[in-house]
Specification:
With 427 residues, the chain is mainly α. It contains 16 helices and four strands. The protein has a two-stranded antiparallel ribbon. Strands 3-4 form a two-stranded antiparallel sheet. β3 and β4 form a beta hairpin. α2 packs across α12, α3 runs antiparallel to α10 and α3 crosses α11. The relative contact order is 0.16.
């Protein structure tokens, strides 16, 4: 069962891509072009030479950072749609350090990267604090902060750090720019992006803290009942995801753009969200998806020049991949629907709404404020759970195999009686 689930997660993006290309070929044929020649031109434009490969990898670098940002946050069960704003804030701080500090070379590069990551993390922390302590919706807050960051960047390159009469900042000194790899357009920023992806993968799947973070993402109520610091992990997910996006903004400025101008970083945040979902919220798969999308964008120019097929066909293919991927994930449920909790958390999108049973666990009944049978889960007594009203949410997803240790944990309360003896009770 576990292996079949992994197989489905692997096949869903591939089948979605194939279906999107089939429809794309139909559109090309309707436009009067040969679909096979168009696809060949698309491939040549993206991977036909070392120069094209370098361009594709360079275009994928900022997408990798923003998609990893979304992936890390979603694993903790929160929607961080502010990757673009955090990306911009990191680039703003990086630009200020690179052009105003007077430091050049490797120390300046390290200081710029660290400063950008810190700026992105702090910018994301605003949303985390409002969610945890004020109960605000993080999706609305992060989207609004994107506009704030965009407008703030406009003030920076049109006024504060403006370079002469042109609405742009000064260029990053050549000694502070990231080096190119093998003389290609791709820079060491791509290596940094791959390293971040590997670190995120290792942390999420091979550390105890990563396990607890994913447990919080699967069911915050169950994690809180079992003693996990839910608020701490929510804040950590916002800070780390924001730092990843901010680091991406710094790397993009030092490696490709070199200055802040109108349209810098436009659309990277929401593109990253889509790529994280297509990659099934797996860090390594997310990197592959980002490279795939970059290849479509780079190769579409060559396709248009060779066959006359407009680049918008490439955008249609990208959109269809997103639609098919999400529809396939939703259709995996027997009743074809999601519970409110799974609708909030894409990390649990494949959970469905089976009839309540002992297999679902009495924690699900407790989340609904109902009475659970005494035999539902070993070691847990019957009766309604004392969960605050604002923490109650309907959750009827079966617990994954790897979450069994978490579900079976017991909350033990030790109280001293008047005679000095301790009374141990389980919840």
């Amino acid at each position: 069962m576990k292996n079949s689930g992994k197989l489905v997660s692997f096949l869903v993006p591939i089948i979605s891509i194939l279906l999107a290309f089939v429809i794309g070929c139909i559109i090309m044929a309707v436009l009067g072009a040969n679909p096979f020649v168009a696809l060949e031109s698309l491939w040549i434009g993206a991977f036909g030479s070392l120069r094209n490969v370098g361009t594709t990898l360079a275009r994928s670098t900022p997408l990798i950072f923003t998609s990893l940002c979304a992936c890390f946050a979603y694993r903790c069960g929160v929607f961080n749609l502010g990757g673009e704003g955090q990306f911009l804030m990191g680039s703003i701080v990086c630009c200020y350090i690179a052009t105003q500090s007077g430091i050049e070379g490797l120390p300046a590069i390290l200081l710029c990267l660290v400063g950008g990551a810190v700026a992105g993390g702090l910018w994301s922390l605003i949303s985390g604090l409002l969610k945890v302590y004020r109960g605000q919706n993080e999706m609305i807050i992060t989207i609004m902060l994107n506009y704030v960051a965009t407008l703030f960047m406009g003030v920076v390159y049109t006024d504060w750090l403006r370079d002469g009469s042109v609405p742009q900042t000064q260029a990053v000194p050549e000694a502070t720019q990231l080096s190119r790899l093998f003389g290609l357009r791709v820079t060491s920023a791509f290596v940094i992006a791959l390293a971040v992806g590997l670190l995120v993968y290792y942390f999420l799947f091979y550390t105890s803290k990563g396990f607890q973070l994913r447990a919080v993402g699967l069911n915050m109520t169950a994690a809180e009942f079992n003693g996990f610091a839910v608020k701490k992990y929510i804040l950590m997910s916002f800070i780390v995801s924001g730092a990843i996006a901010g680091l991406g903004g710094s790397a993009e400025l030092l490696g490709t753009q070199f200055r802040l101008i109108n349209g810098f970083g436009n659309g990277y945040g929401f593109d990253g969200v889509a790529m994280a979902l297509i990659g099934q919220l797996h860090p390594l798969a997310t990197i592959v998806v980002a490279i795939f999308f970059a290849a479509l964008r780079v190769g579409s120019t060559t396709m248009q020049a060779a066959t006359g097929v407009p680049t918008s066909v490439s955008d249609i293919i990208q959109a269809l991949v997103i639609v098919f991927t999400q529809y396939s994930s939703r259709a995996g449920c027997p009743d074809g629907s999601d519970s409110p909790d799974t609708a909030r958390n894409p990390a649990r999108r494949r959970c469905c709404n089976p009839p309540l049973s002992a297999a679902a666990g009495c924690s699900n009944l407790r989340a609904a404020g109902r009475t659970a049978p005494a035999h539902s889960v070993p070691g847990r007594s019957a009766g309604p759970a004392a969960i605050p009203a604002h923490r109650r949410r309907w959750c009827r997803c079966p617990v994954p195999d790897w979450m069994e240790p978490v579900r079976n944990l017991k909350i033990v309360k030790i109280a001293l009686s008047s005679d000095g003896k301790s009374n141990v009770t389980e919840k």
